[in-house]
Amino acid sequence: MGIEITVNIALLCFCIFSFFYAGVGVTPPAIPGTLSASAWPRVILAGLIVALFFNIRACRASRSAPDAKSEIAIAEFFPPKFVKSALLLIAYSIVLNYLGFITSTVIFFALFSYIIGLRKISSLIAGSVVATIVIYVVFQIFLQVMLPRGVWIFRDFAIWLEILAL
Amino acid sequence: MKKIALAALLISTLSLVIAAAAACAADFPLRKIDVVVPFGPGSGTDTTMRALAPSLQKVLGVPVVVLNQEGSGGLRGMEYAAKQPADGYTLFLHTPTHILSEVQNLSSVSLTNNFDPVVCLVQDSVLVVASAKGRFKDWSETAAYANEHPGEVTVAGMSPKGIDAISMRMIVKAAGVDITFVPFGSGAEVNSAILGGHVDLGNQGPAETLEMVKGGEMKAFLVANDKRLPAFPDTPTTYDMGLQVTTGPWRALAAPKGTPPEIIAKLEDAIKKAYESEEFQKWLKDVMLDQRPGWKDSKGLGELWKNDLEFFKNAFKELNL
Amino acid sequence: MSIYELMMAGAAVVFTPKVLLFICIGNIMGVIFGALPGISASMAVALMIPFTLTLDPVGSIAFLSAVYCSAVTGGGIPAILFKIPGTPSSAVTTFDGYPLACRGKAGKALLLILVSSAFGGLVSALGMLLVSRQLSEIGLRFGPSELFAVAFLGLSVLTSMDEDKMLKTVISGLLGLFLATMAMDPVEGVPRLTFGSTYLLGGIPMIPAMVGMFAVSEVLKQVARPTEIKIDGTPSLKDSPMHVSFAEWWSLKWTMIRCSILGTLVGILPGAGATIASFLGYGMEIKLSKHPEEFGNGSLTGLCASETSNNAATGGAMVPLLSLGIPGGNAAAVMVAALMLQGVQVGPLLLKSQPSYLSSVFLSMAVTNVLMVVIAVVVAKMFVKLMKIPYYFLGPLIILFAAVGSYAAQNNITDILVTMLAGMAGYFMIEFRYSPAALTLGLVLGDICENNLRRAVMITRGDVLAVFARPITAGLMTVCVIFLLLPVIKKFLRSRRGV
């Protein structure tokens, strides 16, 4: 329960902060009497702040209730596999900008399969190459979506592939 | 290990070849050209480029591909295009929206500082329309009523600081009345609001409104131009009413700053030929973008940028935006 | 023109070998495009435009409407099997479709959505044919204040979605509403809560957020807790015949009728399309159901409501397009572009000069709604084969499809980051029993609610009371307030009585 309350409190602080931030850089509405740009967000935030407050109370109440489950360790909720996958996902979305689609995806796919449990190197490489090619064909060629190119030589490589495919 | 080294060698050789090819202006173009369109497929800017692309492809001899990079109201495409190498293989289709975003400092990328002008393609106009069943019969009646009841008359348009809103506000200011501008999300919603009687007036382009006017559902009160539009012979111009407003959306092509002038000159030539092609001219007629002269070469576009930037800076100050 | 002559004229266009062939192709491509995540129905229509160049204008629209209908249907297939909405309009289908698939009832779920979709599509097509004029008139009456009331009605379902965890559901919904405000304010034109980011000026994009919160979080869940349940829990068609008993069909009859009508009406409104229709249909059925606790856990009613409404919106979107030239949704707007390419301008005169548009679109939709059931079954079976892939390939593959699908919507790499973050947020929410569904509801409806309220207040120049005094608005708002408060009051009274 500790994590949940922590997140709730963090969210509460963020909401209170946003409540005031919403007014920054917002001019009063062009027409007097109508809703300004910060009115609606503030109403929502007010509701959120109240709801979060009650929620935190409810969480603490259930924590100290006689039949509450014993404090579940953080590790239980976020097993190492989850943490690794989450980091991989974020890394992938950032690396895409630089290495372009093909390279990033091949690496990403192989790493992700590894995290799930596949260990045979040949399967890892085969799987990721096939998957990357399939997605490339479906999206870049069939649907004409321009997949991320990356920079420098990766960009040139991607353009060369696109010309081939045209 | 060997395989990886081989792959790396292959990739670097390829890129050197491509880079070398790209740097050679005399043989431009050697590979396909990307045109970045900062709005979604189906939008006015997008269809303009897609109509031009086939003719341009014929003239240049290489594929011309439209890349939609939409988001943040057209800014995302601009930021993407600015990052591309200035080798002439990336072009950027833009509109007054990008001048306006420069005026408001919305992005770290600015049109006039990070791009070189190539050509201007078309110039569209802004019309003031109203429902045929509405309470006003023409502009004079509207202005008279608005005089006596400030703020009561409503006009529907799209983004509140976009080009059509600015044009509308300038008309309103020149007429000296107070009309409430209500922004909507799309042309369809604007038309709906007008026909449903929820607003008095609307701010649209000729293409979206001609059929409505012909069908008797709408009336066109004003057009922001100095001459009457051929398709709207009965619609008085702002000049007729004593209001000198001619702003309207235009669509033009630019290249990332630093593109070699010889390449720009080549592009200018090629686009001019494509522009004058039969297919494109016919398309222009169909979508009513031929009502006003729109073509400008790179020098003309550069001046358009400067003048519009000045003009909108002042407009923003005057209109208190 | 009498109905008979109209139908004859339409049949003359549609029942030619060429057009029928195109409609078949359109169906197949539509279902496939719809089933691919990130490719929305309007994108599917846009991609098929090049095919229309060999058809005449009437034939083109008949063809494109076939693509539209089948794309909306196709979106439900991955929604059930993988919890990835193939199109945004199938997001609600994941709520009940995926749990059913996990229980081994994938076949039943698929058959249900296909027939529901066909029913919704046919009813709305019929409405379009017979009462277009009247429906447009009704549609035009919905101004900003009415649209606000309709969107708010969708939100008022928040307190009923999960009576046990009302507080957490409400928090999720409010969070979704809050996230929707972090954008460039469309009414004043100023950046709002964007924290200086140019990316946020466009707002948090809907497709990446939804796909991330549903599909990516599910994969993360499977990765984090690889339990034996996974094998039984993984959807499989083999043990699940595509069979729905007559009794089950009969119990759904009112849902299908109600949602068809609702979907058609929502489709007519510009600015509200298949996605909104599916949320509203789902909300309506929760309120009217005797077993609301089943919703979100594999309720057949919930599944049926979602897919009937979103297909009904397709016919609805064509109504204002053909009678007034105002597209009722994004896909209809793309059809306008297609017609322009052929030199045809849409407007009130369109039907006067070519009345056969109405009947040919109707006939095309009628043929499509039947044909797409067959085609979708075939496509679904192909998708099911995918599920035999071992999870260490399937998991990353799902994430890739989710990521690239979200990217494809706007060609924006940051959208992929949003998808991943939404996936992690979704994981967290599911672990602690919050409601991603409610968050999606807030995210989708937030803009429409706020923008229309502010427009309405602008039109009345600050007179908020006048906004709510309008007949349709007042009626809808009363219903909203009742919907919102009743569950809260009931719960409060119950806890007081110590039950």
Largest sheet of chain A: none
Q: Based on Cα principal axes, name the global outline of chain A.
A: flat
Shape of chain C: globular
Structural class of chain C: mainly alpha
Strand order, largest beta sheet of chain C: 1-2
Major beta-sheet overview of chain C = 2 strands, antiparallel
Helix fraction bin of chain C: over 70%
Largest interface: A-C, 67 and 62 residues
Mean pLDDT of chain C: 87
Count all strands of chain A and give the number: 0
Describe this entry's structure for a reader.
The complex is a heterotrimer of chains A (166), B (321) and C (499). Chain A has 166 residues and is mainly α. Chain A is built from 6 helices and no strands. By secondary structure, chain B is an alpha/beta fold. Chain B has 2 domains: 29-123 and 249-319, 3-Layer(aba) Sandwich (D-Maltodextrin-Binding Protein, domain 2), CATH 3.40.190.150; 127-223, Periplasmic binding protein-like II (D-Maltodextrin-Binding Protein, domain 2), CATH 3.40.190.10. Chain B has 12 helices and 10 strands. Chain B has helices at 2-23, 44-60, 75-82, 96-103, 111-114, 139-148, 163-175, 187-195, 206-214, 261-275, 278-286, 298-319, and strands at 33-37, 64-68, 90-94, 115-123, 127-131, 154-157, 180-183, 201-204, 218-223, 250-256. In chain B, the strands form 2 sheets. Chain B has a 5-stranded mixed beta sheet with strand order 2-1-3-10-4, sandwiched between helices. In chain B, strand 6, helix 7 and strand 7 (180-183) form a beta-alpha-beta unit. In chain B, helix 2 (44-60) packs across helix 10 (261-275), helix 4 crosses helix 12 and helix 7 crosses helix 12 (298-319). Chain C has 499 residues and is mainly alpha-helical. Chain C has one domain. Chain C has helices spanning 3-14, 17-35, 41-48, 57-74, 76-82, 91-102, 106-141, 144-155, 166-181, 206-224, 229-233, 246-251, 253-268, 274-288, 300-324, 330-341, 349-353, 356-386, 391-410, 413-431, 436-459, 464-469, 471-497; strands at 183-184, 191-192. In chain C, helix 14 (274-288) packs across helix 15 (300-324). Classes of the chains: A mainly alpha (166), B alpha/beta (321), C mainly alpha (499). Chains in contact: A-B, A-C, B-C. At the A-B interface, helix 6 of A face helix 1 of B.
